[in-house]
Amino acid sequence: MPRHYVTTRDLIAAQRGRAPRLVFLAACEAGVSGIERDPNEFIGLPSAYIRLGAAGVVSSLWRIDDVAAAIFAAKFYSLWLQEGIEPPSALRQTQLWLASATADDLHGFVQDVGALATSDQDATALTPLLKFTEDLAPGSRPFEHPVFWGGYFYTGV
């Protein structure tokens, strides 16, 4: 049966070229590590990317709602790449923002991201997010609970 996942061993074996500055692991539970040979050595995707030379990794410890994850990633990248905020601070600011964002805040943000889309395909991909945020009760804070944003953490420098 063919494998449909990547192991840390695969990543280390495939290392080529320059290491990335930041890796954002959007998959659920991508930050969970296991113990391999030594109880003091935790092996997981974040540590594998650090070993490959990445300066930092953002990942999650538990399953994150897909809509919350998409908005979270977009806000994080907005703070990091557009505003120049270092990844650890951008992560914390994104967590605080998502926890306090109202339906109007979320809808406005998704519209702003759509305005930056560089292709029709990118803009079309945002349609479900726009619909979701349009259907929210005005003034509600749909992602206030830590289950939507508390699982993200930063590993690195």
Tell me about this structure.
By secondary structure, this protein is mainly alpha-helical. The model has no long low-confidence stretch (mean pLDDT 83). It contains seven helices and five strands. The chain has helices at residues 8-13, 45-51, 66-82, 87-100, 103-115, 120-125, 127-134; strands spanning 22-24, 34-35, 42-43, 56-60, 152-156. It is globular, with a radius of gyration of 17 Å. The chain has one domain. The strands form two sheets. Strands 1-4-5 form a three-stranded mixed beta sheet, sandwiched between helices.
Number of domains: 1
Major sheet characteristics: 3 strands, mixed
Main-sheet strand order equals 1-4-5
Helix content: 40-55%
3D shape: globular
- Distance from N terminus to C terminus (CA atoms, Å) equals 39 Å
Residue windows where pLDDT falls under 50 for at least 5 positions: none
Tell me how many strands there are: 5
Provide the gyration radius in Å. Answer: 17 Å
Instruction: Give the strand content.
Output: 5-15%
How would you classify the helix and strand content by structural class?
Answer: mainly alpha
What is the number of helices?
7
